[in-house]
Write a structure and sequence with these properties.
- This protein is of the alpha/beta class.
- The protein is built from five helices and seven strands; from the N terminus they run E-H-E-E-H-E-H-E-E-H-E-H.
- It has a seven-stranded mixed sheet with strand order 2-1-7-3-4-5-6.
- Helix 2 links the parallel strand 3 and strand 4.
- Helices cover 27% and strands 21% of the residues.
Length: 203
């Protein structure tokens, strides 16, 4: 069973879901409090979502993760890419983290970094590096979960020994997919072929 929630009918994730024969739940105007999967889910994914994932929906999945386009705990919130540019950061990155009751506050599963090009605008950084990075990291998380039946979880704030989010794995691979903001993708029994279908192209 696959459950897809998207912000509107013309959202690219919603269009991809319909193309795969899945009728998406559209939460525009009613948020996600009304979203109830028919069956329990193995994995819930929020891809740079601009909407809060309520505890009831998180409880419907064994694992709930999200992608955020910064090296958390740096630049939490919906303007993370702009904040990276405005801060003059030479290094940016993305984080796959466990969803909790906060906003971008959960433990880190995977992180990756990239350089910010001189003169690069936020939209350019997002399209060139951070969106493809998010697709690759989420696919990696699904691979890891499928192989080991658990996901790493490192505290965002470092401990006295310097361990924490910054000790999460850094990788140099890229996956050529783009995520549209404000999309949720949930999958029971995560199959990577299906996930690649959703993360390829301009979704």
């Amino acid at each position: 069973m696959t459950f897809v929630a998207a912000s509107s009918a013309d959202d690219r994730l919603a269009e991809a879901a319909r193309g795969a024969g899945i009728e998406p739940f559209l939460y525009n105007g009613r948020w996600l409090s009304d979203a109830t999967p028919v069956e329990p889910l193995d994995l819930l994914i929020a891809a740079h979502a601009f909407v809060y994932i309520p505890a009831k929906l998180r409880a419907a999945a064994k694992w709930s993760i999200g992608y955020h386009p910064s090296l958390l705990p740096l630049h939490r919130g919906r303007d993370a890419v702009n904040a990276t540019i405005q801060a003059g950061d030479r290094v940016a990155g993305g984080s796959v983290y466990h969803l909790d009751d906060g906003y971008d506050t959960g433990p880190i599963a995977f992180q990756e970094w990239c350089f910010v090009h001189e003169g690069e605008a936020a939209e350019q950084l997002w399209r060139r590096a951070l969106a493809p990075m998010g697709a690759e990291l989420l696919v990696r998380a699904a691979h890891y979960l499928s192989a080991y039946d658990f996901l790493p979880a490192a505290d965002q704030e470092c401990d006295a020994h310097g361990r924490g989010a910054t000790a999460a794995r850094l990788h140099n691979h890229r996956y050529p997919g783009l995520f549209r903001s404000s999309t949720i993708w949930c999958k029971k029994q995560p199959g990577l072929a299906e996930m690649r279908d959703f993360t390829s192209g301009q979704i």
